Amino acid sequence: MTTTAVLPYSVQWDNSHITLLNQQALPAITEFIELHSVDDVYDSILTLKVRGAPAIGLTAAFGVALGAKQETSTDLGEFKKNVKRHIEKLASSRPTAVNLFWALKRMENILLAAQSIATAKEALELEAKAIFAQDEEMCRKIGEHGLSLFSKGDSLLTHCNAGGIATARYGTALAPFHLAKERDFPLKVYACETRPVLQGARLTAWELMQAGVDVTLISDNMAAHTIQQKQINGIIVGADRIAANGDTANKIGTLGLAILAKHYGIPFYVAAPSTTFDLTLESGASIPIEERDGAEITYIQGVRVAPENVNTFNPAFDVTPHHLITSIITENGIITPGFAHNIPNFVK
Ligand code: MRU
Q1: By the 8 A CB rule, do 57 and 239 touch?
Q2: Is 159 near ligand 1, meaning CB less than 6 Å away?
Q3: Residues of the domain holding 52
Q4: Residue 228 C-alpha to ligand 1 middle, in angstroms?
Q5: In a domain, 5, yes or no
Q6: Do 238 and 263 have their domain in common?
Q7: Which of 8, 111, 274, 342 is least enclosed, having the fewest CB within 10 Å?
Q8: What is the pLDDT along the chain (348 residues), one digit of tens a residue?
Q9: Is residue 6 a part of any domain in this protein?
Q10: Per annotation, catalytic residue among 40, 154, 220, 240
């Protein structure tokens, strides 16, 4: 991996490699790194250099295209077996965001249908580019639908980073704020810092400030007080996997915010593209929840903040039950409760 100049998108396909905004280095350093192998892509997803459900999926898709391009086998069967191994490796990087598996399935279907190695390489590259373009389009539409729910001057609270850098562009939960900024539609955002790895403090605060959006950072334990004191009009978050009944997995801490929204009688919105739905799962109880290294809790930015050998529990996501969700904002429109019945009208 090497460092290059600043680029407009956080994930970019450069024919012989992928160029990635290193989200682990933000906000101290804005650096773009080059990924030259499937191993680089796997490592970048695992170590959160790229994170956020849609961004993981489209980066993995480019990873498959990259791996295929680098295959030297001249036998179609062997080529397909090798690329399938790349797909399996990338699928083992993180378990919760279904966008990863959705994107890899699309790539696998292209691989299986290919009649020659040359056409496979070309078609896989085209498919990854199509996944990227589709994500950008979906996020813009989510922004439009999301913005229709807000009034000028509203204050919204968000968690983690469901922004442009977590997607091809615009983001999901943050898309309405990017569009509002383009349109001179004033909105105020309160961003929870999002322990343990601070996606809110490091990424959402950075991204919204870059865009000129009015953002105020709070630590996670300030959410209740902030809702009570600052006339928060609603909470909007992204999602990593939404089950058929509307139960939603998102960054750890989301569930607590949904409970707070209920208590204070404010809306709780989930913003996600159709690619984040997993209609094979009846409820959130079956969503696999990633558990990460306890060092993410015992250290903050390399500094130990807890006794050595303390027991830790570090789930990266939680599941918000559907009855706490006011609506789910997708590219196809806004889904209202009665989710089990209504979701199929928006997500095929
Ligand atoms: O662990 P992360 O940073 O990948 O978790 C990300 C989130 O939980 C986001 O809210 C979600 O993926 C939506 S990103 C548009």
Answers
A1: no
A2: no
A3: 11-139
A4: 26
A5: no
A6: yes
A7: 8
A8: 433 333 369 999 999 999 999 999 999 999 999 999 999 999 999 999 999 999 999 999 999 999 999 999 999 999 999 999 999 999 999 999 999 999 999 999 999 999 999 999 999 999 999 999 999 999 999 999 999 999 999 999 999 999 999 999 999 999 999 999 999 999 999 999 999 999 999 999 999 999 999 999 999 999 999 999 999 999 999 999 999 999 999 999 999 999 999 999 999 999 999 999 999 999 999 999 999 999 999 999 899 999 999 999 999 999 999 999 999 999 999 999 999 999 999 999
A9: no
A10: 240
- Residue 125 alpha carbon to ligand 1 centre in Å: 25
Is 73 part of a structural domain of the chain? yes
- Cβ 80 under 6 angstroms from ligand 1: no
Give yes or no for residue 52 CB within 6 A of ligand 1.
yes
C-alpha 224/C-alpha 32 separation (Å) is 37
Q: Please tell me the pTM assigned to this model.
A: 0.97
Check if 254 has its Cβ closer than 6 Å to any atom of ligand 1.
Answer: no
Strand order in the sheet with 3-4: 3-4, 32-35, 18-21, 11-13
Instruction: Decide: 277 and 270 in contact? Cβ < 8 Å.
Output: no
Q: What residue type is assigned to position 39 of the chain? A: D
Length of the chain: 348
- Of the three residues 86, 116, 139, the one that is the final residue of a domain is 139
Cα(254) to centroid(ligand 1), Å: 11
Task: Please report, as a single letter, which amino acid is at residue 114.
Answer: A
The CA 317 to ligand 1 mean position distance, Å, reads 9
Domain shared by 114 and 173, yes or no: no
Same domain, 125 and 160: no
Total structural domains within the chain = 2
CATH number at residue 275: 3.40.50.10470
Which CATH number does the domain housing residue 24 bear? 1.20.120.420
Tokens of 347: 């997500």
* Ligand 1 atom showing the smallest separation from residue 290 Cα: 1
Bridge partners (DSSP) listed for residue 21: 32
